[in-house]
Write a structure and sequence with these properties.
With about 750 residues, the chain is of the alpha/beta class. The strands form 8 sheets. It has an 8-stranded parallel beta sheet with strand order 3-12-11-10-9-8-7-4. Helix 14 runs parallel beside helix 16 (about 540-555) and helix 14 runs parallel beside helix 21 (about 735-750).
Length: about 750
């Protein structure tokens, strides 16, 4: 049995699981069907990598009408002298300028996992590792959602990081309100968490409990604490004129008053823990309303925050962590590149409009790099205002932009870079960068599955699309943890399919010591990653993912055979000890007949087909939504018809990405018909029937079939006499992350 040919898998669409002739057409620029009527101006280039530049100019109508994008930030250099120079934060001497920020991947429930998780960053070359707040640390304000202090293995974490020659810090948060920034949350850390709701006695207790928590952490081996006074934390509510309506010495009448609470925390910690115990403060550098249409006039400006920063320094703060301050979209505080997620989205808000970055955020954000380095100019203003080190994070990833970040450090815009996602994806990030192995660094694809996502059953979890160990290490599927299990018997392993699931399986199996041969039907590995990159746009770095996985096959010593179809008889002839089948799933068809005025187009073919202005997409999964974004960026009018309910819209996509994409699509005029189907295709129209039973006729030049994927286990079922693992969409279609994880786990099980 050969590979699935024209069928496009969920994994294949987003990561390259199956072969398609469209890839060759794309490379040749044969995209007349969706090509724009006019070429993008030179100063409005997309942010695609150099390999996609010509294609982008050919096929894409630049979406950057408000915020022109540039691709010149991706230059690579071998001279990272400033990045790998020392910096001092209080008493802490760091050998480089990269710091692990206080964010995790929901490891708190597993002691072995959380210890290994934080140790890995120190092993990878990071000298200061910040741990996110996960403990019920306030005596007077209990948080039932967090673990008690004695349940968190603080001593083990501190010892592990110190054994690797690094420092460890802990972020102290006071998030007692909902992310909306306007509503109290009775289930949070504080029943009263807005500045005006706290009595003076309660303020004193908050300060005392914060100091006590810091002293406990020091006693358990920690070197520093970070006071989270950004976002919707308690400290920020005192800084903010919008949220602080007090009329006492903690009110908004002066900068001294607004900063008083956090200053008292700093002073108390220094008195209790000593001057050598470092205290960093996380502060909003600039704020704006990004969620609900409303007034931003009382949101804190850069100029106000500079005055507050001076107060924090005078109180004894050793360093500042400056980040973005959106009102409602919490994740954009540290992942502001979400404002650019999805094809054709540049500066989107959560209510469907777009920011003009030359006007919004006081015109101070760097917007031309798809969110990369967005806060660097703001950080520079803080550096000029204070004498203590200043760090920032907004997709700070020198693996993608080493020149940009080396220059920012060398020019004195920032003293250190805070990172989380790049390090979670590849804990050896800093070591590889220092050693010049940039092509071996696993890329963050900015998918945001790592921050509160849902699985097929609707359960909340956090995971990394690229690093399969997240939320799996030391658990039932991966009891050995981050390290690969040793090989008992060396096997000859055949991997069928060169998309990410197959490439990951081959990589892991070879690294364990097996003899691995990967067979791919197409002329090169990667499957549909280039196709996916074109459809989704450059934001998710899918071309980088393909390059990384291909390079990993070389590093691991995998024998790659391309241009070869594989069926059960071929496997039998090769006589492997084990086979991993990663041929992808199959997509159902509507079996509709097109007419003179309305074409019916399978999703794999929509880029090369002649498509008119009125398009109906059948399906509401992530592939369907990505196609809709692409087509609407070309000026098409899109209607979506789906048998699913609205709560299943964009399923398989990151929850936070959905939060931005859906309102953007609706604001641009896309109508979604849930619980609906196409009844008939007419000449230039389609008739649909919705859940009410009424039929509606719509203008339609093309119907695009983007229904859910179905498993494709047949090759595995036809293969007998050897160990067989069917992985990815061939077994269970869902998304990139689950496909890569399936390949990883199968290779570990050999």
């Amino acid at each position: 049995m050969a590979h699935v040919g024209s069928s496009l898998t969920r994994r294949g669409f987003l990561t390259g699981a199956a072969a398609t002739a469209a890839g060759g057409l794309l490379a040749g620029g044969m995209l007349a069907g969706c090509a724009p009527q006019e070429k993008a101006p030179a100063d409005q280039k997309g942010a695609a990598g150099a390999s996609e530049a010509d294609l982008s100019a050919e096929v894409r109508q630049a979406p950057s009408k408000l915020n022109p994008q540039s691709d010149d930030y991706r230059g690579n250099t071998t001279d990272l002298a400033t990045l790998f120079s020392g910096v001092r934060i209080g008493s802490l001497e760091l050998s480089n300028r990269m710091v692990k920020s206080a964010a995790g991947s929901d490891t708190q429930g597993n002691e072995d996992e959380i210890v290994a998780y934080y140790r890995s960053f120190a092993q990878g070359g990071i000298d200061l590792v910040w741990m996110e707040d996960c403990a019920d640390k306030y005596e007077h304000f209990p948080n039932t959602r967090a673990q008690s202090m004695d349940k968190v293995p603080f001593e083990r974490i501190a010892d592990a990081i110190h054994e690797e020659g690094a420092y460890v810090g802990y972020q102290i948060s006071c998030m007692g309100i909902a992310f909306s920034g306007t509503q109290k949350d009775s289930s949070g850390q504080f029943a009263s968490a807005v500045a005006g709701d706290l009595t003076r006695e309660e303020i004193g207790l908050v300060v005392a409990d914060t100091v006590s928590a810091a002293k406990t952490l020091k006693d358990k081996g920690f070197d520093a604490v970070e006071i989270n006074a950004a976002g919707n934390n308690l400290g920020q509510s005192f800084f903010s004129r919008m949220r602080n309506h007090r009329d006492d010495e903690y009110g908004p009448q002066s900068f001294e008053n607004r900063a008083r609470l956090v200053c008292e925390m700093i002073q108390g910690i220094k008195e209790a823990c000593g001057s050598d115990f470092a205290v960093q403060v996380l502060i909003n550098g600039i704020e704006e309303n990004d969620q609900a249409l409303g007034d931003s006039s009382l949101m804190t400006t850069v100029e106000e925050n500079l005055e507050i920063a001076k107060m924090l320094e005078a109180a004894g703060a050793d360093s500042l962590h400056v980040r973005l301050g959106p009102l409602g979209m919490h994740v954009c505080q540290f992942a502001s590149d979400l404002y650019f997620t999805g094809y054709g989205i540049d500066g989107t808000t959560a209510y469907g409009t777009q920011f003009d970055f030359s006007r919004h955020w006081q015109g101070k954000l760097i917007s031309e790099y798809s969110g990369c380095g967005m806060m660097l100019d703001v950080a520079r203003e803080f550096k000029d205002a204070v004498s203590i080190p200043v760090g920032t994070v907004t997709y700070m990833d020198p693996a993608h932009a080493p020149d940009l970040f080396e220059a920012a450090l060398a020019e004195g815009k920032v003293d250190f870079l805070l990172m989380n996602r790049p390090l979670t994806v590849d804990p050896q990030y800093a070591n590889k960068l220092k050693e010049g192995r940039i092509d071996e660094i696993a890329p963050c694809t900015r998918c945001l599955h790592c921050h509160f996502d849902y699985d097929e059953e609707g359960n909340t979890y956090e995971h990394c699309r690229v690093n399969a160990c997240t939320q799996r290490a030391f658990r039932d599927d991966m009891p050995e943890g981050f390290d690969l299990p040793p090989v008992g018997t060396v096997k000859n392993v055949m991997v069928v399919g060169g998309g990410p699931a197959g490439m990951e399986a081959a990589r892991i199996a070879a690294l364990r010591g097996h003899n691995v041969t990967l067979y791919e039907k197409n002329g090169a590995v990667g499957g549909l990653l280039d196709f996916a990159s074109t459809v989704k746009g450059p934001h998710e770095n899918l071309s980088d993912l393909r390059s990384y996985l291909a390079r990993q096959l070389e590093v691991a010593g995998v024998d790659v055979v391309t241009g070869t179809e594989v069926d059960a008889s071929f496997i039998a002839d090769q006589k492997p000890d084990a086979a991993i089948i990663a041929v992808g799933g199959v997509r159902d068809t509507l079996e509709l007949s097109e007419t003179t005025g309305t074409k019916v187009i399978p999703l794999p073919d929509f880029l090369t087909a002649e498509i008119g202005s009125e398009v109906t997409i059948v399906g509401s999964n992530a592939q369907a939504v990505d196609a809709a974004l692409y087509l609407m960026a070309q000026g098409k009018h899109v209607t979506m018809v789906t048998p699913d309910s609205m709560d299943q819209f964009d399923k398989g996509q990151s929850n936070w990405v959905k939060t931005f994409v859906k309102p953007m699509l609706l604001a641009r005029g896309m109508r979604i018909w849930p619980h609906a189907e196409i009844v008939s295709v007419g000449d230039g129209e389609v008739t649909i029937a919705g859940e009410t039973g009424a039929e509606i006729t719509l203008s339609c030049d093309a119907v695009i079939e983007a229904m859910d994927m179905l498993p494709n286990p047949s090759l595995g079922e036809e293969t007998s006499g050897i160990e067989v693992h069917v992985v990815g969409d061939a077994a269970k279609p869902w998304n990139i992350a689950e496909a890569i994880a399936a390949g990883n786990l199968a290779a570990r099980a050999l």
